[in-house]
Every structure is written in structure tokens, then in C-alpha cells.
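hi! just following up on the protien thing from before. the input was this:
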Amino acid sequence: MEVNPISLLLKYPFLPVYLVTVFLAIWRYPRYFDTLLRLLPVLFTYTLATEILGIITYEFTEFSIFLNEFFSYYNWLIYNVYLLIFCGYFFFVYYRVIPWRAARTAILIGSTLLAIAALINPLYQSFQYEVQLGTYITGSAVLVVSSMMYLIYRRSVSGRAFTDRDLLSWISLGIAIFYSGFIPITIYRNMHAPTGLMDPVVVTRILQVLIFVMYGCILVGLWRMRPQRVFLSN
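and the predicted 3d structure came back as:
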């Protein structure tokens, strides 16, 4: 097995961004260790590990998680599980942070819809070998709505369009931008999956830009944040 680190980094340029995010989240941990965001270092580490495992299983078939050689480079199982964990964590955070009854009801409904989609989707798409389209669309849409509701709530509290010292505001902005673009990309990929063709370069580049924007927002938020223990512990 030959490994060219430079070529891998050029193909997956977002990996260093994930690594920097993990380190910065740990460094800033004293500013939010007793808030609802205290699990961020764990989540970001899990994100980095998921991407590394996904790349390894895709690029090096000898490390496949499946015994069947036909599915040796399939890694959707890893990402299907990741989406559910990522959505579940932020649904919980938004539900606890936003005090509006209507917003909490919407998040509960969205969480229920995601659970239903996660149960139904495997009936027509393999959870191990295929992207769970219904689950991805539902989870992404609810994340976008939840993050936007939080930004609206913060505006009502602070009186400003954007609170640049609030970590969750930056995270919410990144989530809203990324998943708004991720939904059409996921639909496009699913439509063309039966053809067996690789994604066009432009689609891959757009996805990478969205990743950079999302984690760029998170990094800025971690860097500029003030201690928010009272606000997020409510």
C-alpha cells in the first residue's frame, strides 16, 4: 500500500481544518466547559475520526469495513451513523437554548420526523451501502430551520442582526450555510448514483467550499467568543 500524504491532502483539503477545529475547541474549552456546548471537542474529534475512517475505507480497500469485495470502498455506513449523532446533538442544544415554545415544538416535530425517516429509509435504501436520502434531507432541513430560529432568537435578545462574540451564533451560521447547500448536492448525488459515475469536479469543489465556510465560521466563533456560561446553562 503506497500512501502519498500530499496527494491525499490535495484531494481532501478539509482534513487540516477539522484538526485545527479540534485543537481550538480544546484550547477554548475553559470558556464553555459548563455549558450545553461542553461536548463540542468530542463532537469535532468524532467528525475528524469519521472523515479519516471514511477516507481510509474508500481509498484503501484492504481496510474495508465489509467482507464483500464488491462493497470494499463503500463508506456510507460511517456517514449515515454520523449524521444521526450530529443532528441529535444540535437538536438537543437548540431545544434547550431557545426558550420560545413555538421553536421548541418545531424542533420536537423535526426530531420526530427525522426518527421516522431514519426508520423508513432503510426499507428502500441499504443503511450499510447507500446514502439515506430521506434521512439526510430531513435532518439537514431541520438543522437549517433550528439554526435560523436560534439566530432570530439571538437578534431579539441582543437587538443586533448578529452576535459576533456568541459561539453558537457562529456555529448556527455555519450550519445554516452548509446544510442549505448540502441538501441539493445530496439529491444530485442520489439521482446520479445508479449511473456509477463519479461526481463532477464542480460538485466536489462546491461541497469542499461549503465545508470550509462552515468550519471557518466555527473557528471564528471559537476565536472570538466570550465566556457564555450563564446564557447557555439556562
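The chain has nine helices and no strands.
Confidence is low (pLDDT under 50) at residues 66-73.
cheers
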